[in-house]
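Query structure, 371 tokens:
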């Protein structure tokens, strides 16, 4: 015989457990923000660059529509109107180039792949005129998809990348001097690398992680602008390339995703953190989704969290306080590879372009809005 008080107690417990189970998944997304589709670009692009200008607009340059169909066109996104408009063309079509905002307000565009291979050419975009101007000085090496880091003194470190003879990566590095608009060879990394990451540390040094030469590299290096030398530091727990990295508020560096030597078949969910104080990497909880061909720099949000997008339909946010990832509500329309992510002046993040599981690029964009 059923006892009324027992049934009431069981009902209360069941309701409480149901409510708890319902709240638990939501709790992990509190404060994470959400993703929603936005205005498409004028052209479908992947492997392009996106640079936040002092005006708050974003310069999109180059990239490809599909393999061997490279753009020299550029366009501007205005967050105030949520619209794109054309701007001047680069001198050549290129994909996998670097784009760095200099202290003078102009944007350095250099390297990348052109129709027959990588290039050493460079040009400056001037927001005041909306035009690109070719620099008479060229890089010291032809480089496709090198890393580029704005140093504390305003110069730019350019390292690695692929060339004709070493499509798996070269070791040489150079510095672009913003005052003279010239490139200077500064030596070589200890290992050839392409599809690596380069993160400016708080002390002005640069952490170089991952990438591949003839094979994947687990040994990280640090470039010191004072000595202009590279020195080895800790080893990655998992060798990877085509990953992302981002500086955390406490000065450590998160490294996440990418691929192992199997490339498309070896996408990674794993993540680890480099501590400059110890020179070592330690594992942290993994992302929910495996992903590679990511933007080289994860976006630092105003909250101190890092946003990671690309290679999956989801957008994930790493919380350094909890040392774990959370998936943001909303999805992209595909696992877009080599897309761009740009933090806007108001703290939102513009996600744009990329290609999915073929070489057809998209013009779609999305806005991540933090909470």
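Result returned for the query:
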């Amino acid at each position: 015989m059923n006892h009324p008080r027992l049934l009431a107690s069981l009902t209360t417990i069941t309701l409480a457990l149901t409510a708890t189970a319902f709240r638990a998944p939501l709790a992990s997304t509190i404060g994470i923000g959400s993703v929603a589709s936005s205005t498409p670009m004028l052209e479908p692009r992947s492997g392009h660059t996106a640079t936040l200008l002092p005006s708050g607009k974003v310069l999109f340059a180059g990239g490809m529509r599909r393999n061997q169909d490279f753009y020299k066109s550029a366009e501007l996104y205005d967050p105030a109107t949520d619209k794109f408009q054309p701007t001047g063309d680069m001198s050549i079509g290129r994909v996998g180039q670097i784009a760095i905002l200099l202290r003078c307000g102009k944007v350095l565009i250099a390297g990348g792949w052109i129709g027959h291979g990588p290039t050493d050419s460079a040009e400056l975009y001037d927001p005041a005129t909306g035009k690109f101007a070719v620099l008479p000085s060229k890089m010291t090496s032809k480089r496709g998809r090198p890393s580029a880091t704005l140093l504390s003194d305003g110069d730019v470190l350019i390292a690695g990348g692929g060339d004709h003879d070493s499509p798996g990566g070269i070791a040489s590095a150079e510095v672009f001097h913003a005052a003279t608009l010239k490139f200077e060879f500064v030596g070589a990394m200890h290992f050839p690398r392409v599809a690596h990451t380069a993160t400016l540390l708080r002390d002005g040094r640069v952490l170089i992680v991952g990438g591949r030469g003839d094979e994947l590299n687990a040994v990280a290096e640090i470039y010191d602008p004072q000595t202009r030398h590279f020195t080895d530091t800790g080893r990655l727990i998992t060798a990877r390339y085509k990953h992302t990295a981002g500086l955390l508020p406490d000065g450590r560096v998160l490294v996440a995703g990418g691929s192992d030597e199997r490339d498309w078949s070896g996408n990674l969910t794993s993540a680890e953190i480099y501590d400059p104080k110890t020179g070592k990497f330690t594992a942290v909880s993994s992302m929910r989704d495996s992903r590679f061909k990511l933007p080289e720099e994860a976006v630092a949000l105003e909250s101190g969290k890092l946003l990671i997008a690309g290679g999956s339909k989801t957008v994930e946010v790493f919380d350094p306080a909890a040392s774990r990832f959370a998936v943001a509500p909303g999805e992209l329309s595909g696992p877009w590879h080599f897309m761009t992510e740009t933090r806007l002046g108001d703290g939102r993040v513009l996600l744009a372009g990329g290609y999915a599981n073929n070489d057809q690029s998209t013009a779609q964009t999305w806005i991540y809005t933090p909470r």
